[in-house]
From TrEMBL:
Protein name: Diacylglycerol O-acyltransferase
Transmembrane residue ranges: none
O-acyltransferase WSD1 C-terminal domain location: 322-461
GO biological process, alphabetically ordered: biological process involved in interaction with host; glycerol metabolic process; response to hypoxia; response to nitric oxide; triglyceride biosynthetic process
Enzyme Commission code: 2.3.1.20
């Protein structure tokens, strides 16, 4: 019998709406292949996906409902699978600017995926300045669980300019099960797993209330009342529309290491401190109060070592949600960093935190899968009182390639939770730290201002380290701009 969607997967499908698409995206920017005789075009991308898609069989399956909905839907092979429907081609008017690319990303990410087909899309965007191109991908949160399925971005990238050989793909779709076979599978599952019916009921309840127990329903009512008062004080809580605005910030990893060396903590702590400083400055530009007690509640998924309490992933780690209070009311950037480090130290002291070195050492690792897992966890655990989701994934500090084309930058696109106006995705890769800022288009017309506040907050922290080294060695003679990212 085909695999059945988990109760969590079912919740993602039922919670999706035109205002809150439940897909995770990535924007990767590439230079032309290193070998002058090679060329990367649409046909190259289609051929690459066709060679590698066998490693992620879920990407050729669609969701099939059970008659009468007596049980959750199942994954079945798409007999009409058309790779050219999922891998698409677009182009910017040459020479395409980074701003034009960001506008295209926002429009692509605003559209929901077709439920009648496998739940993913990939776009080749040609025409960028300097003969560069971009690959935009998006996968539904029900698709990537990190166990049976990783993100397709993890299998299309290579560690060298010479693509690895893959076995010949002999895939033939299985015929979808009949209505009788689907119903027989329901009874078989109920016999083998008596709790399956209960789990389905819990998932149905979650789709209606956002909770899975009476206690949580009551807690959500109370939390909503608290959130209403909290929302009156913060422009981060909005009526989410169906349209998005996306921008990026690219910074140097060495800057974060300098701050860590001077003030302690981890790179992740410094990233969170930078985001906290950006929120503080951005709120001030909006005329919002940032008194000493002002804070932003951030859901920050983190990786932990597998054990019996969490469902293991094929990556060798599980992802759980952690809530960090960003002290935006604190005037001192160093004190903000220390307060954040104190909170995250509780997690590190459990001894189960996975180090960045361990994560990037995973064979074939690409940040896309962990961003997808982080978004799944955040979606399942976020509460009305939470302000923002921040995913920070360490990537490899060496170049990755797609069919010989070197990847210059990778920006995550983390979905918005209902009622939230902004999500922040962060990826460190090949000496850079790249921020992907996904926002509600109506609620945050000043997203570019927040992006500038990110670079300013990092510079503010760096100013506190100038006594330990010569600032001139950083090699920056003028402020960085988000428009420079990926160009």
């Amino acid at each position: 019998m085909p695999d059945r969607l988990s109760s969590l997967d079912l919740t993602f499908l039922k919670a999706e709406s035109p205002a809150t698409p439940m897909h995770v995206g990535t924007v990767d920017i590439f230079e032309p292949p290193v070998h002058s005789d090679d060329e990367f075009d649409y046909e190259s991308l289609v051929a690459l996906i066709r060679d590698r898609i066998a490693f992620v069989p879920r990407y050729r399956q669609r969701v099939q409902q059970v008659p009468g909905r007596f049980a959750g839907p199942v994954w079945v092979d798409d007999e009409e699978f058309d790779i050219t429907f999922h891998v698409r081609r677009s182009a910017l008017p040459r020479p395409g600017t980074h701003s034009q690319l960001l506008e295209l990303v926002a429009r692509i990410m605003s559209r929901r995926l077709d439920r009648a087909r496998p739940l993913w899309e990939m776009y080749l965007v040609e025409g960028l300045q300097g003969d560069r191109f971009a690959i935009i991908s998006k996968s539904h949160q029900a698709l990537v669980d990190g166990n049976s399925t990783v993100d397709i971005g993890q299998v299309v990238l290579d560690a060298t300019a010479h693509p690895r050989e893959t076995p010949t793909d002999t895939w033939q779709p299985d015929h979808p099960p009949s209505a009788l076979e689907l119903l027989a599978g329901v009874f078989a599952d109920a016999t083998r797993h008596p709790t399956a019916v209960l789990e389905l009921a819990r998932a149905e309840m979650a789709s209606l209330t956002g909770s899975t127990s009476v206690r949580e329903v009551i807690g959500d009512v109370v939390g909503s009342l608290v959130a209403q008062r909290h929302a009156q004080e913060s422009s981060l809580h909005v009526k989410t529309s169906g349209q998005r605005r996306f921008t990026t910030v690219q910074t140097d990893l060495e800057d974060f290491r300098t701050v860590r060396a001077m003030h302690g903590g981890t790179i992740n702590d410094v990233v969170l401190a930078v985001v906290a400083g950006a929120f503080r400055a951005w709120m001030m530009t909006r005329g919002e109060g940032v008194g000493p007690t002002r804070s932003v509640r951030a859901v920050v998924p983190v990786s932990i070592r597998d054990d019996e309490d969490e469902e293991p992933t094929s990556l060798g780690s599980s992802v759980i949600a952690s809530t960090v209070t960003l002290p935006v009311g604190e005037n001192s950037p160093v004190m903000r960093l220390h307060q954040i480090s104190y909170q995250t130290k509780v997690h590190k002291d459990t001894g189960r935190a996975v180090s960045a070195r361990s994560l990037v050492g995973i064979a074939g690792f690409a940040p896309t899968t962990l961003h997808a897992l982080a978004a799944r966890v955040a979606t399942a655990t976020v509460r009305p009182i939470d302000d923002v989701v921040i995913t920070n994934v360490p990537g490899p500090q060496f170049p990755l390639y797609a069919q010989g084309a070197p990847m210059l930058a990778s920006y995550p696109v983390v979905p918005l939770m209902p009622g939230q106006g902004l999500s922040v995705g962060v990826t460190s890769y090949d000496g850079k730290v790249s921020f992907g800022l996904n926002a509600d288009r109506t609620a945050m017309p000043d997203l570019a201002v927040f992006a500038q506040c990110v670079t300013d907050a990092l510079d503010e922290l760096l100013d506190t380290t100038k006594g330990s080294r010569n600032r001139a060695t950083r090699g920056r003679k003028k402020p960085r701009s988000t428009k420079k990212a990926g160009q």
